[in-house]
Amino acid sequence: MFEYLNGKLVKISPTNIVVDLGGVGYLVSVANPYAWSSLLQTEVKIFVHQVIREDAHTLYGFVNEAEKLLFLRLISVSGIGPKSALAIIAASDNEGLINAIDNSDIKYLTKFPGVGKKTAMQMVLDLAGKFEANEAVGLSLLDNDSTGNLALEEAMEALQALGYKVTELKKIEKKLAQEGVMTSEAYIKAALKLMMK
């Protein structure tokens, strides 16, 4: 499975871009191809997700890992396929999308193409509370109050990847910050001790 492509952006069409990597052109479906116009004929790094079906192998591309994560969460919802997920991401109001999911705003969600009332309700059921609004705009998954403590940020992200909720982690993050500077591993161990109390 591909994680990202590093290559030259050589072509833009209404639904795809083409990235030349070592003389091979990779056709990548993206939410808004024309947002890449300023990068035409330059080296780009594009995060990708490959979908393999009986009749096609398709690469879907994203500007950053946060956008890719949002896409993956959207396609995990029954009734939302990759094309619908790209259409939702193309609206560029990811913060509004997440707020709508968290607040069960069905009317807002049904404004997206291919999302009816049933799918909107499924989105709320499957995704409410699963991410913070800042996750979708490529910022840190947690509010670190601009501490600049990279090891603590990495520890919080690792704990979230293990399945701990952002709300749980926010409660212990300030306590961990008061412990002083430690390694990511030490922060993780300290966090687990705090959460097991």
UniProtKB/TrEMBL annotation:
Family annotation (InterPro entries): DNA_helicase_Holl-junc_RuvA_I, Hlx-hairpin-Hlx_DNA-bd_motif, NA-bd_OB-fold, RuvA, RuvA_2-like, RuvA_C, RuvA_C_sf
SUPFAM superfamilies, per the entry: DNA helicase RuvA subunit, C-terminal domain, Nucleic acid-binding proteins, RuvA domain 2-like
SMART domains for the chain: HhH1
Keywords carried by this UniProt record: Cytoplasm, DNA damage, DNA recombination, DNA repair, DNA-binding, Hydrolase
Helix-hairpin-helix DNA-binding motif class domain location: 72-91, 107-126
Molecular-function GO terms, alphabetical: ATP binding; four-way junction DNA binding; four-way junction helicase activity; hydrolase activity
Pfam families from the UniProt entry: HHH_5, RuvA_C, RuvA_N
CDD domains associated with the record: UBA_RuvA_C
Highest taxon of source: Bacteria
GO CC terms of this entry: cytoplasm; Holliday junction helicase complex; Holliday junction resolvase complex
Similarity annotation: Belongs to the RuvA family.
Name of this protein: Holliday junction branch migration complex subunit RuvA
